[in-house]
Design brief:
This protein is of the alpha+beta class. The chain has helices at 2-33, 47-52, 57-63, 94-101, 135-138, 274-287, 304-309, 328-332, 351-360, 432-435, 455-467, and strands spanning 67-77, 113-124, 130-133, 144-147, 153-162, 167-172, 194-199, 207-218, 228-231, 243-245, 251-258, 269-273, 293-294, 297-301, 318-323, 339-343, 346-347, 366-373, 376-383, 385-386, 405-408, 413-418, 421-427, 443-447, 450-451, 472-478, 483-489. The chain has eleven helices and 27 strands.
């Protein structure tokens, strides 16, 4: 009976399985013939929620015609090793010519030239064809082609460029009025505001990306006038020179750089603020170049140690490390060791503020500069000069007399007298001087504001500061690259 029940169960299971296969076959055939779409409507957000989501379609449609792609064709020197070994091809063969053309040098030893194409972006700012882009996009601008959003190609002429801000202005000729966009108020842009970037990344013209303003006033080491808007809208190679729009379609920035460990966008892009771009572009349009105000000083940031050495209430302003000969600063009486605190009534918080403020001043106009000197404020009237194309700072006068050596144990420095002045021979690696970047070969120009000519002058200056119960002593150092102040902590005995 057990065997019979088992058999009967197996037969029943088989019948059920067969029926299931049959039924599934009928259902499957029906499904293929009439597929049912997924029900997405019931899963959609409520209308009120959708209305809160931003759409930039209308804005993009309006601004796109004013954004262009820029192509620059030029010849550059071929890169590579100085020479290639003799090629195993018979003279005159196609293979010989092909591989010879790859060599960086021609038969006469002169560098070979090769054709190169640079791609970037730009945007029209007037109906008569003026276009803003980056200086690094156009370079010398010998052969510039502008491609509009409808594919129309137009030859462009370089009007002017400014390497210091990486801006350039080109122009196309057209019989009809061209669509253009206008600059907005970049000073009113806030961190968290929506922005749009439009450009030509990787040759893909008319690409639109969105994001927010991530930060303001970014310094990325691009130049003395760094003051970038950081955005997280995706920008890549080819976006350079393109516009950053606010939600009203006004240009608030010119895309110029990205931070990327990979070469592609990681959400950290930088745009030149419209407030800077407008001033530069206006001068390029008028004169083909940018003229900046010039004071004639080398300045450095005031940190906490320097502020304490100078008896300033806090770290602010810009410390004058060097004054150029025959400069407006020298003529007006500004001295090395002065701290520039105020220019024309505007407080200067740091070096960048001083550089930008002075650069914006009209040459041959008077300016009122307040400096910190001898533990007090002093007002100096200066006639602003024109920033020279090539500037060489004054060098220190050589010293006379028998060479002298010395040490400053409290600073960890070994000194020697040379024709160039008091040179640091060695630096204790455990000293405050080493930590602050003082290096062998640096020349000590001043100690506590006094000129030094021999090591004993340095030792005397340090001892004087120590006897006055000061926590640090201020040294003016000159290296091959620059002249700067350093406040070194005094070791108490």
């Amino acid at each position: 009976m057990r065997n019979g029940r088992n058999f009967s169960w197996r037969r029943s299971a088989l019948a059920l399985t067969t029926a299931g296969i049959f039924a599934a076959g009928i259902w499957s055939a029906t499904a293929v013939a009439e597929p049912a779409p997924l029900d997405t409507q019931s899963a959609a957000p409520a209308a009120t929620a959708l209305e809160r989501l931003p759409s930039f379609a209308d804005l993009v449609q309006k601004v796109n015609p004013a954004v262009v792609s820029i192509r620059v064709d030029e010849e550059v020197e071929a890169r590579g090793s100085a020479a290639m070994p003799d090629l195993p091809f018979p003279p005159g063969s196609p293979f010989e010519k092909f591989f010879r053309d790859l060599q960086p040098q021609g038969p006469d030893g002169a560098p070979r030239r090769r054709h190169a194409t640079a791609l970037g972006s730009g945007f029209l700012i007037s109906a008569d064809g003026y276009i803003v882009t980056n200086n690094h996009v156009v370079g010398d601008g010998k052969d510039i082609t502008v491609v509009r959003d409808d594919g129309t190609e137009m030859s462009a002429k370089l009007i002017g460029r400014d390497p210091k801000t990486d801006l350039a202005l080109v122009k196309v000729e057209s019989k009809e009025a061209l669509p253009y966009v206008v600059f907005g108020d970049s000073d009113s842009v806030r961190v968290g505001d929506w922005v749009l970037a439009v450009g030509n990344p990787f040759g893909l013209g008319g690409t639109v990306t969105t994001g927010i303003v991530s930060a303001r006033g970014r310094e990325i080491g691009a130049g003395p006038y760094d003051d970038f808007i950081q955005i997280d809208a995706s920008i890549n190679k080819g976006n350079s020179g393109g516009p950053t729009f606010d939600v009203h379609g006004n240009v608030v920035g010119v895309n110029t750089a990205i931070f990327s460990p990979t070469g592609g966008s990681v959400g950290i892009g930088f745009a030149i603020p419209a407030a800077i771009a407008q001033k530069v572009i206006a001068q390029l349009k008028e004169d083909g170049k940018v003229t900046r105000g010039w004071l004639g000083v080398t300045i450095q940031q005031v940190d906490d140690d320097l502020a304490a050495s100078l008896l300033l209430d806090k770290a602010r302003g810009a410390l004058v490390a060097q004054v150029a000969e025959d400069s407006p600063a020298e003529d007006s009486g500004i001295k090395t060791g002065d701290v520039i605190l105020n220019v024309n009534g505007k407080e200067m918080e740091d070096v960048r503020a001083v550089s930008r403020t002075v650069a914006d001043l009209e040459p041959d106009t008077d300016a009122e500069i307040v400096v910190w000197r001898d533990e007090g404020r002093k007002t100096i009237d200066v006639e602003i000069g024109t920033f020279p194309e090539n500037l060489e700072m004054a060098s220190a006068a050589p010293s006379d007399g028998t060479p002298e050596a010395g040490t400053t144990e409290s600073l960890g420095l070994a000194l020697a007298e040379t024709p160039d002045g008091v040179v640091i021979r060695s630096v204790d690696p455990a000293s405050d001087a080493a930590e602050k970047g003082v290096r062998p070969g640096d020349v000590i120009v001043k100690v506590s504001g006094r000129d030094v000519k021999k090591p004993s002058d340095v030792v005397a200056g340090v001892e004087e500061a120590s006897k006055a119960d000061k926590n640090s002593v201020l040294l003016l150092l000159r290296s091959e690259e620059q002249q700067r102040f350093v406040a070194l902590t005094l070791e108490k005995s």
